[in-house]
């Protein structure tokens, strides 16, 4: 399986701008720039997209872990916070912090944590990130 996205950039790093488009069309000429990355201008940035990918991947992986163990979640809500830090002359994504709120009928905390930790370690986005990954959860 392959998925594609395209980036087009015009101008310098600081003053230029670009747009991102995905084959699915969910991103369609979505703007990004220095200001959307390092300031708060409207648009997206690579770290936001990685955070969305990590939250989505982890949450789906957990749903599969729970299903395999015979549990059906009522809701799994995950926030991922990706940290971009200065490293030498450039920057590095140093951390992705996952915060999960879960409602899963009939599961105890120990079993849930076991399955959530497995999802944290084994989702494909976790495997590709060269960063510290943390996961905290609240089980209702």
TrEMBL record:
Transmembrane segments: none
Pfam families named in the record: OsmC
Domain of life: Bacteria
SUPFAM superfamilies for this protein: OsmC-like (SSF82784)
Annotated stretches, region: Disordered: 1-23
PANTHER family, alphabetized: OSMOTICALLY INDUCIBLE FAMILY PROTEIN (PTHR42830)
Protein name: OsmC family protein
Lineage of origin: Bacteria, Pseudomonadati, Pseudomonadota, Alphaproteobacteria, Hyphomicrobiales
